[in-house]
Design a protein that fits this description.
401 residues; mainly alpha
Length: 401
């Protein structure tokens, strides 16, 4: 089905699990947000500012990490370092005594969370040129696993620990993953780099970069991805807030609902990735975004815990299934040696759009209620859909890039 043996897939699986650890950190922050909001006695807008800080830091760190990845080639070191620093910052958030030091720790979490992607995606793109859609779907699958397991685990721990103690405990698996990647995957990187005789230089990098940024299709794809990511960030922020504040769900139900949204992506990502390797990226993206628009609109009219959880389960399947296909499409367009920078452009646009959305949706919730937020998010994903429709057809073979 994939064209790869199990031993050939091991590096992709390890990077995917490492990606899951970065999302474990981010999901822990999002899930703890209602309890942080309650303890600090802040408004929805203030909570949105904290989330905006996360994405602003992601945006600022993103481009430097892509350039560093492509020039240095130290992809496993960057991945491992991102996990260690992110876990340290999450532990620091647990002992923060006010909103300002908490915001500083969130800044580090956001920066390290996005620094992971250029190193990881360029590693997979170069390692699996003919199975890029599948390899990146395993990467996305890891994210969905982290996002789905973390809410269940954190929701359970919150039942008998404070949010500060929960944050400290949640750092342990992240440190373990960083150590595993460094000790095992580092050898794989050295072996593969030696076989491919990969070389880079500052002058070659700048030359290839000039040609790449002239591609209107890559810029349009980045813009489309930005709107899609903005909707996703709004959902990550307001799904737990809507469950706790409006539907009066407890920690376990909140964790379960948040988890089910991610489980849909666990199922959809590999299917979408393999399918896109055969029929192309564009039809998968357009279909997924169309269904996502309808699903987000459905959340605005779901009036019970059951209907809302069913809705976010369906939404997770279509929204998260699109994610690795978008990234594969972008890497198809870029130079083989600029995988980190291509990833930085895509994730930089996503982070830029994500900065404003938490504050905007927080203000919408304060003024018109949390339910109105989902209509605003449906509008964002609809714009993303229109942009995808206007993009030209892509190459069917991801290995042709």
């Amino acid at each position: 089905l994939t064209g790869l043996t199990w031993s050939e897939q091991r590096p992709a699986v390890m990077v995917g699990l490492g990606h899951g650890a970065t999302h474990w950190v981010a999901a822990t922050f999002y899930l703890l947000l209602p309890w942080i909001k309650e303890e600090l006695q802040i408004s929805y807008t203030d909570a949105g500012i904290l989330v905006a800080v996360f994405h602003l830091a992601s945006f600022l760190a993103n481009f430097a990490s892509g350039t560093l990845t492509d020039i240095s080639g130290k992809r496993v070191l960057i991945q491992s370092g991102s996990l260690v620093l992110g876990a340290l910052a999450l532990g620091g958030a647990a002992v923060a005594w006010g909103i300002l030091p908490l915001a500083m720790m969130i800044t580090v979490i956001g920066a390290t969370n996005n620094s992971w992607h250029p190193a990881a995606l360029s590693f997979l793109s170069e390692r699996y040129p003919k199975n890029r859609g599948y390899a990146l779907s395993i990467h996305a699958l890891g994210a969905n696993i982290g996002d789905s397991v973390a809410p269940l685990a954190i929701g359970a721990v919150l039942g008998f620990m404070s949010w500060q103690e929960t944050a400290l405990v949640s750092t342990l698996p992240v440190f373990a993953m960083a150590l595993w990647l460094w000790t095992v995957l580092n050898r794989e990187e050295r072996r593969f780099t030696k076989e491919t005789k990969r070389k880079s230089s500052g002058s070659l990098y700048l030359s290839e970069l000039k040609g790449m940024v002239r591609q209107s299709e890559l810029l349009g794809l980045s813009l489309m991805s930005g709107f899609r990511a903005a909707c996703q960030v709004g959902l990550l922020m307001f799904v737990p807030l809507y469950l706790t504040d409006v539907l009066q769900a407890g920690p376990m139900m909140t964790g379960l609902g948040f988890s089910l949204m991610q489980i849909g992506g666990v199922i959809a990502s590999p299917v979408a990735g393999i399918w896109s390797d055969h029929i192309g990226r564009r039809p998968i993206v357009i279909g997924g975004l169309t269904l996502s628009t309808l699903a987000v609109g459905g959340l605005a009219i779901a009036g019970s815990q059951f209907l809302f959880v069913v809705g976010i389960s369906v939404l997770g399947f279509v929204l998260y299934g699109v994610r690795p296909v978008v990234h594969s499409w972008a890497l198809d367009l870029g130079s083989k040696s600029l995988g980190g920078t291509v990833t930085s452009i895509i994730f930089g646009m996503q982070s830029l759009f994500s900065v404003a959305v938490p504050v905007f949706t927080g203000a919408v919730a304060d003024r018109w209620g949390v339910q109105s937020v989902f209509w605003a998010l449906a509008a964002l994903i609809l714009v993303s859909n229109f942009i995808a429709i206007m993009l030209p057809g892509d190459k069917k073979s991801s290995g042709s890039a």
